Amino acid sequence: MQSLSVIFQLAGAVALLLFGLGLVRDGMVRAFGVRLKMVLGRGTRTGLRAFVSGLVATLGLQSSTATALMTASFVDRGMIRPRMAQIVLLGANLGTALTAWIVASGIEALVPVLLLVGYVLRRQDRRGWSGGGLALIGIALMLLSLGLLGHATEPLRESAAMAAFLAMLGNAWPVALAIAAGLAVICSSSLAVVMLVLSLGMEPALTVVLVLGANLGGAIPPVLATAGQGIAARRVALGNLIVRAVGCLVALPLAGQVAQLLSAVPLPETGLAVEAHLAFNLVLAAVIWPFSGLVTRLTALILREEEQPPPIEAQLLDGHALDTPAVALARASRAALAIGDVVERMLQQARTAFARGDDAPLAEVSVLEERVDRMQQEVKSFLSRLGREAGEDERRQAITILDYVINLEHVGDIIDKGLGPEIRKKAALSLRFSDEGYRELDGLFLMTIENLQLAQTVFMTRDRDLARQLMEEKVEIRRLERLSAQRHLMRLREGQADSQQTSSLHLDILRDLKRVNAHIVSVAHPILDEADLLIESRLKTG
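User: That's the sequence. What structure does it adopt?
Assistant: Structure tokens below.
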């Protein structure tokens, strides 16, 4: 029973530490989220600024993993050069080590003050003060967790079984390294493992080995998290793992000498584990910084660009097809449908980002918008070269295709330059819509996607009934947009806090979705016009 109690106490202390880390991260994002992203996204023009931006971002976010994922996302969008990204991560790794040093520097006496000040600030209406208060509460809980860790590991330090286990690990450094790395992956935090090693108070050389393992394991979660992203993002995470792995490989045989050296250096009493953690990342940053370009080239060799098949427009818009207008128009129509599929993917990703409050899916939206622009230009150029053999009907069909393609390009622009910044603002400021407001907007997102799918069918089949249905959907969208705006204003009058914080965003997203639907529905106009089912003006006469 005693061993089970120790396990629960130990697990609870680690959980409290991780929970405190999460509160600090959430509080800092709430208070300085946009500024931290600006520091990381724009502060990479020189190596020094890149290093400092990674250090500052990690001290704010309390997570080198979060900094690594943000950096990888920026590289994927072309906002940060790959070499600078590796330097950012060197700063991020040092930021985690400095966090451990600050937490272990004997400021437990400040816990009551931090809790009191944090609670007072948390109750303030201003977002910055509230976020700062949450961060202070998180720091206090982290300090409390260290005391709990010390209390929970006291029986372990006196246990003969634990002494035998540690002695076994002392003779098997690679195994000890692997165990610490595995714990860091499970916790998704090298800091938590370093604090655990600190509380155990084991033999110096083994302490250094376990700290090395914690550093190695801390580089693995970003690799796993970026597995589904672009190759540029994956290279950044892989480079960070390679750097730490090489550092551990070099330092592992020297663990005993490193422990002796650190014990002889007159540093503030924070514990060998914390000192080893700080020294490892300081030395690693100093040594790797000049070779960051080499790391970037190495990751490019390991993760090569996959050979992509020719784009669909290159396959379809072959100049030889222009000699036969019917074939050329059929190919241009298929290219237009392909553009529609890309725009639908953009809408899907925008809706996902809106639902999750995470701007990561918008990185793909920006890439796809450029592709839509390029495909639209290709179709316009192709149709402009249609041979003289084309008859009047074929020329009219070419104009219809061109109109649809241009409208799709406008939709892409609205998604990328209208909805994109609005959703990024929601994510950066952690804004939350009211439940009713969220359902209204998400419903319009879904209807817009369904209307685009219907428009694709109308364009392909030129079915009059479907074209009429699409026009009726436009009227319904207009009605829902007005109704949602009215309900939003009613919620504002009732003083709902969520609606007040998101008022401009709600109305802007409504407006952009309405504009998107107007462009989508335009595919039905020529079909209904041919059937004499449209009137010239919506104005009432008389």
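The two ends are 91 Å apart (CA to CA).
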